[in-house]
Amino acid sequence: MSTAAITPEMGNRGKPLDANSYATKKTIAQGMLDIALLTANASQLKYVLQIGHQHEFYTLMLWLISVSIVLQACQGVLYVMLGSVFNINKTKDQGGANLWNNVVFAMGIITTIVNIIISAFDMRETEKMGSNITMILSGNSQ
């Protein structure tokens, strides 16, 4: 059996799972999600800067969004470093690759937590709801 092909209990459903193909697709999907998060953070930053100090949590949001973007940029650099500097087929590189992989993983967890906090303080939806409720109560509903 080839090391690139994993044959789980598949019955007669098709060819065996190719681990390299799976890993490549997973990496591409992760990259797309990272780009989507970076784009969302850029949009949030633009919104907060446009609203300015009218936003109830202006300083907090500005700080959190900036931290999130910096963490994502650092993760990107570390991903490139992991892919180009370390060769996990060499025993001497395995320890360093494992260490930096754990660092990137921890940064990903911190980025997720920061973005959860950002979404908790994001006022866009509540402002829209508040203005809609005001319009309805004043009889200006459309």
From TrEMBL:
**Annotated TM spans:** 60-82, 102-121
Flavoprotein as a keyword?
no
Provide a GO biological process annotation. cell adhesion
- Subcellular location(s) per record: Membrane
Q: Name one Pfam family in it.
A: Ninjurin
Q: Which InterPro entries match?
A: Ninjurin
Q: What is this protein called?
A: Ninjurin-1
Which parts of the chain are coiled coil? none
| Keywords associated with the record | Cell adhesion, Membrane, Transmembrane, Transmembrane helix
Per the UniProt entry, what species is this protein from, by scientific name? Answer: Zootermopsis nevadensis (Dampwood termite)
Regarding protein family, the annotation reads:
Belongs to the ninjurin family.
The upper taxonomy is:
Eukaryota, Metazoa, Ecdysozoa, Arthropoda, Hexapoda
GO CC, alphabetical: membrane
Its topology with respect to the membrane? Multi-pass membrane protein
